[in-house]
Amino acid sequence: MQKKPLFKTCKHLFFHIRPTKKLNSKQSTILKHLILWKMARIKKKTQLPLSPSFKLWQRSSTLPKTASLHIKRVQKNEQKESDYFSQFTTRQTLSSIYGNIQKKQMNNLVNQAFRRKGHAGSRLITLLESRLDVILYRASFCTSIFTARQLINHNKIMVNGIISNSSALLLSPGDIVSVVHNYEMTLKNSIKSIQKKNLNKPNYLEISYNLMTIVFLYAPTYVFFQTYIDRDNIHKSF
């Protein structure tokens, strides 16, 4: 029977069997080297790095850079989410104030506001306040912008003596809004109840409740809202 090499014999004794017989000098030397090698290997694996928050077996030279990049990435994502949320709330609030204007109509107004000189957000509000349905509501001819649109759709409103069926019509300074003759008395009765609740009259409108007419004097430059709207963020929201 062929004998095993001396190194393999000592390695087998080290890993599997505790030797009971005495070893010669060569066997004890090899076994001693194996023990020292095993102890050094165990010590290297169990040695902890200076910063225990990092991964145990990763190179320390790459850890600070990786951590800083991760922090920057998280901060950037949080900033993107907060910017998007503020823009979304501004867009939704502005749309609800003006009666949930259709997206296509709002985009057209935004494009017009960007083409004009001045602050884009203020110009957009000026254009929104120049709409026919908004002017009827500001003049207290209607309880809401939705009822103003119903009057326009049912051909009850005239602009410069011509019946208008477009609630998105933008008025120019000097335009006269009136009510068709056969609907004046009906609207007068509803206006009385509205006037008791709303006593504020816009300065840019000349209103005659006897003649049932509205004269658009000029486009407003500033409008007060009951809810907060970031005017600097309006042009970024669309």
From TrEMBL:
Residues covered by the RNA-binding S4 domain: 130-192
Q: Which SMART domains match?
A: S4
What are the record's GO terms for cellular component?
Answer: small ribosomal subunit
Highest taxon of source:
Eukaryota
- Looking at the UniProt entry, the stretches that span the membrane are 207-229
Q: Which Pfam families match?
A: S4
Which key words are in the record? Membrane, Mitochondrion, Ribonucleoprotein, Ribosomal protein, RNA-binding, rRNA-binding, Transmembrane, Transmembrane helix
GO annotation, biological process: ribosomal small subunit biogenesis
Q: Which GO terms describe its molecular function?
A: rRNA binding; structural constituent of ribosome
NCBIfam families in the cross-refs: PRK05327.1 (NF003717)
The UniProt entry's sequence similarity note says:
Belongs to the universal ribosomal protein uS4 family.
Output this protein's name: Ribosomal protein S4
Instruction: Give the species this sequence originates from.
Output: Nephroselmis olivacea (Green alga)
